[in-house]
Amino acid sequence: MAQAARFGARHLAKPDAVADLVKSLTQARGADLALELSGAPDASRAALDVLRVGGTAVWVGAVFPTAPVSIEPETIVRRCLTVTGIHNYAPRDLAAAVEFLAANHTRFPFAELVSKSFPLAEVNEAFRFAEAERPVRVAVACD
Question: What is the pTM of this model?
Answer without folding.
Answer: 0.76
